[in-house]
Model the fold of this input.
Amino acid sequence: MLDHDSTDILSDLGAMRRYARSLTRDDQAADDVVQDALLRAMEKRASFRPDGSRRGWLLAIVHNIFVSSKRREAAEARRNDRFAQTLVTELGPEQEQVAQLNEVARAFAALPTQQREVLHLVAVESVSYQDAAHILGVPIGTVMSRLSRARATLRVFREEGGAKVQGTLRVVGGRDDE
Done:
């Protein structure tokens, strides 16, 4: 099936990409889904029934990969919300401050993992850039770059999404330190 004639799979590649684009509504995400689906098809090729539709089988794999990724994203969002709640519940300030801290905690939790790691180490744990680089196993320039992007993202949150917080939230580093 998949081993002997790569032109067969290439004829179904267009349908796989179109379906993935329809599901994801994003070209890059669709390409990722198709790539994962092709890998899964190669790994599970023994489960293909020769009397079945190869295209249907491949499109089902695309669908399952997409659904699994959405479930993972939803689970991560739930974890981020729970994580944001734990950050806020440990402080116990007044009600308005709780709401503000909740918004900041959500923005922090929504940062990409690499940015959140660096920001936590440097801003929360007061780890030096050099030590953060050592802990994460990356060059110090990477730490500085990730930290800069994390701060920029939080700044955008403050300026756009967190308008209620403007008077009390101060993103340390970059423009706010000037």
